[in-house]
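Internal tracking record. Fields below are filled automatically when a chain is submitted to the structure queue. Please do not edit lines marked as system-generated. If the sequence contains nonstandard residues, flag them in the REMARKS field before resubmitting.
Queue: standard
Priority: normal
Entity type: single polypeptide chain
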Amino acid sequence: MTKGQFIKAYRAHVVASYPWAADEAKLDRFMASVTVTLSTERATWAWSSKGTKEVWKAIGCKGPVTLKGLRALPAETEKA
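SYSTEM-GENERATED OUTPUT FOLLOWS
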């Protein structure tokens, strides 16, 4: 699994779960925060939600979800 696959699956989860996600601008800002948290040392997104855990399992990741684990997912340019 890759960061891009996680982000895509998480975005779908957010759209399906939260009415505010129908506002494309809000959704884009939120997902930008997710991307920053996964791609840098900054933590601008509260990653430890129930939804994050559900998506982590749904994309086939094993064990508990951690920020270290999320950041360790390979980028699309790396071999998955």
